[in-house]
Amino acid sequence: MNIRFLFFLVTAVVGSAVYAVPFGDPMESEEGVMMTLEDCIEVGLQNNFSVRIMRNLEQQAVNNATRGHAGQLPSVGLSAVYGGSLQNSTLNNNVQAGADVSWTLFDGFSIRANYNRLQELRILGTLDMQGALEDFVASASSEYYHLIRQQVRLGNLRKSVILSRERLRIVQESYRLGASSGLDYQQAQVDYNADTSEYLAQVELVRKSIIQLNQLLAFDNVDQITTPADTIIIPNRHLDRAQLEHRALESNTHLLKASTRRTISDLELKRLQGRNYPSVRLNAGYGYRQEWGPTIGASMGFALYDGGNRKREQANARLNIENTRLQQEQLEQAMQAELAGLWLAYTNNLNLWEIEKNNLQVARSNYEVAMERYRLSELSGIALREAQLSLLKSEERLSTVEYSIKICEISLLLLSGTILTAVL
Q1: Stretch 56-71: mean pLDDT, rounded?
Q2: With contact defined as beta carbons under 8 Å apart, do 149 and 406 qualify?
Q3: Across the strands, what pairs with 280?
């Protein structure tokens, strides 16, 4: 049997098997749910474990910020005692009952400072909650767009597989007519298999991204197919650096928390300085001891010497005030540096975006010409493969730039403290 004819039979069988297998998205047959970014955030704000934990911590801070906890209110108690003694064969009963009130009238303004401190801790709890919400929105947005990017890449790889399959069909037909060698067919088959393998690997990456998004949204079934309603990433080209810097200095949650901690450290020193003054306490009651009657009294105390602890604690409190001031300034500088770096990346990627859009048009046109020449046997399979890979790389670079712009945008909004109003 002619060797060329035998090779054609083998390749024809293999080619028929390839074409007989439908090639589509393995996830298309699975039921799923389509969600917009707003849907994801709305669900996550209710379900996300970190948000729910921080909401409870915020409520604890609110519960603690009371006058009673600060010591501004009196304490009231009831007591009753019944007893007896046996003396000279005589049983003597002893009954006591009453209500007691104790109230600190003055302690060197420590109570007032402590109450104000509790109020600042409540504010800090609110800021912690706000920070948790901002972090969640940023994470959910980033993961949402990451999933879109992975799906875009999956679509690009699917198109690459289709192009490789078309090349395989053409070279098989060309070989049948005697216009190409078996080596060309084998190379086309290798490239097709390589593209298929890369596509299937990308399917896995898409599924992993879906799982991460489902986990972030605290779905019971983290393996369910969650599909973004958006199919492309549209960068925001209209951010304003001066406005972002101004809002960051006013609204950045970390800066606001640093300012609150500085206030708390000031109030802690005032609380400790209250020990430099005497304390006055009022005690009153009404009870029964042989007969009913009221009792009232007042006490005053002043610590003359406590081993230097009072002086030491106040010195450390002043150092803590200085540290909180330095930490606030350090944080402000770090925020400005981070914003400058993000802005540089944002503007640079916007420039790259325009370049890559033009590159993609050229790559598509180049591939169309190459494919037409390949059909006419005017171009080698290797040259066609180079044009195909150039197209795929151009699509990948454009997708990467669009995703990078969106991540810079999210980070800038988070840094400026405006992400909740910008996204929700």
Answers
A1: 89
A2: no
A3: 106, 300
Using only C-alpha atoms, what is the Rg of the chain?
37
Query: Residue 45's pLDDT is what?
Result: 94
- 80 bridge partner residues: 97
pLDDT at residue 255 is higher than 90: yes
How far is residue 66's CA from residue 301's CA, in Å, rounded to a whole number? 25
Q: Say whether pLDDT at 123 is over 50.
A: yes
Whole-angstrom CA distances from 371 to 99, 110, 170, 386 are: 98, 84, 10, 11
Q: Can you tell me whether residue 296 is helix, strand or coil? A: strand
Residues contacting 312, CB < 8 A, separation 6+ = none
Residue-level length of the chain: 424
DSSP structure string for 14-72 = HHHHHHHS----TTTTS-EEEE-HHHHHHHHHHH-HHHHHHHHHHHHHHHH-SHHHHT-
Contact 293, 171 (CB under 8 A): no
Tokens representing 329 are 């300034």
280 SS3 class? strand
Sequence letter at residue 41: I
* DSSP secondary structure, 102-165, as one string: EEEEESTTHHHHHHHHHHHHHHHHHHHHHHHHHHHHHHHHHHHHHHHHHHHHHHHHHHHHHHHH
* CA 281 to the chain's CA centroid: 50
pLDDT digits (tens, 9 = 90+) for 355-395: 999 999 999 999 999 999 988 888 888 899 999 999 999 99
Write down the pLDDT at residue 400. Answer: 95
Q: What is the DSSP string of 171-199?
A: HHHHHHTTSS-HHHHHHHHHHHHHHHHHH
CA distances, 279 to each of 64, 85, 236 (Å): 24, 40, 62
Domains of the chain: 24-79+94-423 (1.20.1600.10)
